[in-house]
């Protein structure tokens, strides 16, 4: 312990005071501490006015540890902060800030960079040249350009501002509690000059004793033990501390890293100022941004690992991906090794700095420049209740596209950015990205293209276009064709401008293509509008196809008119391969697949160039045999209005064609077509099995599809009415078996069955069932005689 009491002015002249990495917020400035501030400040003022019985106000001990000229207060940092603010405020009002600022800069914070930067700005005299005392000091400070909006929620900075300016909080009697330096020290300049002289004199009226813990080295554990009120850093604050420490270590090895430690433009200061402002508008109700800031950096750095380090999904860097792309639960709790393995080159930090620099200059949310059809996408994460917004695999590709533009562009240009992101979104959306490998392939495709973020159309349209990536070949080919038409249009009629198109916006091929991309469920993929029946790009019919596409696929589009359009489309099939892989329903996803797959380019071309979309009732298929029957039934019968969604056409043994959804288990979702049993049984159909008053010669089943002459199921169970009700089952292998008590009688008598392939018509079917019943009666009579 020093033998003599010391003043703060002398103390700060001898030491560079650095509030340690672990500390509680500046508690004396908190809300709810108004009376504490009042009592302490009143005593300080009484001392300065020499109105105390003792010649000097002696404050409690300050404990600290010294290391390389820096003093870390172990206890007493609250008092030191208040004394520092007192000296700063008196110097400002006395006109002494210029001479005092050099020494006052010896007070700082170790890693709470926002607090450090705030204190530094208070010590820049030029920042207060316009201050005349006619407005509140806090209002003046917070209105300055150097005061970041995010600081309004920084607890330490807010506490400092309360200590400087006070609050408007009243006591129980309704009187304002004088709890700020400005409120208490309501004096003229001459009085402040006297206060300044007193504070800086050898016989300063405010002193304390300092205890140097030179036998100890300051550690986090020691701090917590000696200051039980200490507050640990948050997960993100620990990350920032290690991030800065990593840069400092790299700078010792390589001078190229040193530029990132610049006191005014380096990463440490940007983390708590310019970069913080980017996330500020998405803060939660408590003013917290740590989780969204951390998530953004994790997403960015994972992309760096994938692109630059070729990190496999089994490597430790993929922890940043979270669980199935959900990274909302990630915390910084396993050290910096993952990040150090990614940030191996200074260029990565250069790119990150460029990204934030460009982002700060973007007037709107970057998502405002994306195609409208792309939907919700939080480039900057948002708080949603107790969690934060995440990204799908497709959105991660788009996130990367935004980052690559901001990293690579010379300056943000709205037109170039919109063009680049239109291409990125089209490529990301119109590819199946449901695996990690698929996502990585698209990231690498976007990375290859990103060398031309400022002239993407020109690059796509150039004769020199060459790319190694094999991802998304169909959509990439479409983007190339559209870029060429935008820059050097083929001779083709430009579609008419929409009636609601703004007069101040140019209408050209780029705008026409963008309009089409955003229509209905097209979502950026419109090659069906300029691909002819031979799978070649052709723009001559674009206007006709675009007009028909709006009629067919709009909000109330013709495609919703039961299965009419689908049946018309199937009527144009000329190759059997066209029936394979098609989904026989009229959902948006199914039509989207039909429109985009080049397998159906010929019928799509013919359909979109048509003037009518009604099915010809006299339609005849050009196929032969069973295939002819399949096409005609699908086109004419109306079956497609009634079947389950998601059905595919399948071929099975015994020359069976059957419709059912992928992996369907339920029998009622299966429909055998091009089989005469549908027509024959429909002719004899009398109703459901439980119907009373059944008619002689009719069949009754619960498998009839009402509205068309079809039945569901592999096998059809039905009741035939003769002198009694007899149960039959038309098996899918085309034999009709007689049943009794749900038992197939063929097992006992192979004469109790009918060969369905031999039946000529419904009359023949009735006769054969009657004959089968007769054989059953005979066999049953013989069995009874034997018994």
What does this protein look like?
- This protein is an alpha+beta fold and 787 residues long.
- The chain has four domains: 8-232, no CATH class; 237-488, no CATH class; 529-669, no CATH class; 675-786, no CATH class.
- It has 29 helices and 19 strands.
- The strands form five sheets. Strands 11, 12, 15, 16, 17, 18 and 19 form a seven-stranded mixed β-sheet that branches. The protein has a five-stranded mixed β-sheet with strand order 4-1-3-2-5. A three-stranded antiparallel β-sheet has the order 8-9-10.
- A hairpin with a 4-residue loop joins β16 and β17.
- α3 runs antiparallel to α4 (97-104) and α13 (274-280) packs across α16 (346-360).
- The chain is elongated and about 130 Å long.
- It starts with 7 loop residues before the first helix and ends with a helix.
- The model is unreliable at 215-232 (pLDDT under 50).
Which features characterize this protein?
single chain; 787 residues; alpha+beta; 4 domains; 7-stranded mixed β-sheet; 5-stranded mixed β-sheet; 42% helix; elongated
Short description:
With 787 residues, the chain is an alpha+beta fold. Helix content is 42%, strand content 10%. Strand 2 and strand 3 (70-75) form a beta hairpin.
Fold topology:
Layout: H1 8-14, E1 16-19, H2 34-48, E2 57-67, E3 70-75, H3 77-94, H4 97-104, E4 107-109, H5 113-122, H6 137-142, H7 155-165, H8 181-184, H9 189-200, E5 206-212, H10 220-226, H11 235-253, H12 267-271, H13 274-280, H14 290-308, H15 337-342, H16 346-360, E6 383-384, E7 387-388, H17 393-408, H18 414-429, H19 436-449, H20 456-461, H21 473-487, H22 509-517, H23 542-553, H24 564-570, H25 588-596, H26 601-608, H27 625-636, E8 647-652, E9 656-661, E10 671-673, H28 676-684, E11 685-687, E12 699-700, E13 704-705, E14 710-711, E15 716-721, E16 725-730, E17 735-740, E18 743-744, E19 753-755, H29 762-786
Parallel strand pairs: 1-3, 1-4, 2-5, 11-12
Antiparallel strand pairs: 2-3, 6-7, 8-9, 9-10, 12-15, 13-14, 15-16, 16-17, 17-18, 17-19
Helix pairs in contact: 3-4, 3-9, 13-16, 16-17, 17-18, 17-19, 24-27
């Amino acid at each position: 312990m020093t033998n003599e009491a010391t003043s703060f002015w002398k103390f700060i002249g001898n030491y560079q005071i650095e509030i340690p990495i672990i500390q509680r917020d500046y508690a004396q400035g908190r809300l709810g501490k108004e009376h504490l501030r009042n009592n302490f400040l009143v005593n300080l003022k009484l001392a300065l006015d020499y109105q105390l019985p003792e010649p000097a106000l002696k404050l409690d001990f300050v404990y600290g540890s010294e290391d390389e000229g820096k003093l870390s207060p172990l206890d007493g940092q609250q008092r030191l902060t208040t004394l520092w603010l007192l000296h700063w405020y008196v110097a400002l009002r006395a006109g002494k800030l210029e001479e005092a600022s050099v020494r006052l800069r010896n007070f700082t914070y170790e890693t709470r960079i926002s607090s450090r930067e705030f204190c530094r700005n208070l010590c820049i005299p030029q920042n207060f040249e316009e201050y005349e005392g006619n407005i509140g000091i806090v209002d003046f400070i917070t209105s300055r350009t150097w005061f970041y909006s995010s600081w309004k929620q920084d607890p330490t900075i807010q506490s400092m501002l309360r200590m400087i300016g006070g609050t408007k909080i009243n006591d129980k009697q309704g009187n304002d509690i004088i709890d700020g330096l400005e409120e208490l020290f309501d004096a003229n300049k001459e009085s402040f000059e006297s206060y300044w002289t007193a504070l800086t004199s050898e016989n300063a009226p405010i002193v304390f004793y300092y205890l140097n813990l030179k036998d100890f080295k300051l550690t986090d554990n020691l701090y917590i033990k000696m200051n039980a009120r200490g507050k640990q850093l948050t997960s993100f604050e620990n990350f920032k501390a290690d991030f800065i420490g990593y840069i400092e270590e790299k700078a010792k090895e390589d001078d190229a890293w040193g530029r990132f430690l610049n006191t005014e433009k380096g990463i440490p200061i940007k983390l708590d100022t310019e970069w913080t402002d980017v996330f500020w508008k998405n803060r939660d109700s408590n003013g917290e941004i740590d989780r969204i800031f951390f998530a953004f950096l994790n997403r960015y750095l994972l992309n760096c690992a994938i692109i630059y380090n070729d990190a496999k999904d089994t490597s430790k860097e993929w922890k940043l991906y979270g669980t199935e792309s959900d990274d909302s639960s990630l915390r910084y709790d396993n050290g910096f090794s993952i990040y150090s393995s990614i940030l191996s080159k200074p260029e990565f930090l250069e790119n990150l700095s460029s990204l934030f620099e460009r982002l700060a200059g973007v007037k709107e949310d970057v998502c405002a420049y994306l195609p409208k059809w792309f939907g919700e996408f939080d480039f900057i994460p948002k708080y949603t209740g107790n969690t934060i917004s995440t990204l799908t695999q497709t959105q991660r590709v788009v996130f990367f596209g935004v980052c690559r533009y901001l990293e690579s562009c010379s300056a943000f240009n709205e037109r170039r950015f919109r063009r680049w992101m239109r291409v990125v979104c089209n490529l990301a959306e119109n590819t199946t990205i449901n695996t990690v490998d698929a996502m990585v392939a698209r990231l690498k495709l976007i990375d290859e293209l990103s060398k031309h973020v400022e002239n993407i159309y020109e690059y796509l349209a150039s004769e020199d276009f060459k790319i190694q990536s094999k991802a998304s070949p169909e959509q990439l080919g479409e983007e190339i064709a559209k870029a060429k038409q935008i820059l050097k249009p083929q001779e083709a009629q430009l579609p008419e401008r929409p009636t609601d198109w703004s007069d101040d916006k140019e209408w050209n091929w780029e705008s026409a293509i963008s309009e089409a991309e955003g229509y209905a469920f097209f979502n950026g993929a419109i090659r069906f509008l300029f691909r002819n029946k031979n799978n070649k790009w052709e723009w001559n019919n674009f206007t006709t196809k675009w007009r028909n596409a709006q009629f067919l696929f709009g909000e109330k589009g013709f495609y919703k008119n039961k299965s009419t359009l689908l049946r018309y489309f199937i009527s144009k099939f000329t190759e059997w391969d066209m029936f394979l892989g098609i989904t026989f329903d009229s959902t948006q996803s199914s039509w989207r697949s039909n429109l985009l797959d080049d397998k159906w380019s010929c019928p799509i071309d013919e359909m979109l160039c048509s003037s009518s979309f009604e099915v010809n009732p006299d339609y005849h298929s050009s196929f032969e045999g069973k295939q002819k029957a399949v096409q005609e039934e699908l086109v004419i019968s109306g079956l497609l209005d009634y079947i389950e969604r998601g059905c595919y056409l399948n071929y099975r043994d015994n020359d069976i064609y059957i419709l059912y959804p992928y992996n369907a288990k339920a029998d009622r979702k299966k429909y055998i077509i091009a089989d005469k049993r549908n027509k024959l049984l429909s002719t004899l159909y009398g109703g459901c099995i439980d119907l009373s008053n059944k008619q002689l010669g009719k069949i009754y089943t619960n498998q009839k599809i009402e509205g068309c002459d079809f039945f569901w199921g592999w096998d059809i169970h039905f009741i035939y009415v003769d002198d009694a009700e007899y149960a039959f089952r038309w098996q899918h292998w085309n034999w009709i078996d007689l049943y009794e008590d749900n038992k197939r009688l063929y097992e006992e008598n192979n004469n109790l069955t009918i060969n369905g392939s031999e039946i000529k018509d419904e009359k023949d079917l009735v006769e054969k069932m009657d004959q089968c019943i007769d054989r059953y009666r005979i066999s049953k009579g013989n069995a009874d005689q034997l018994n």
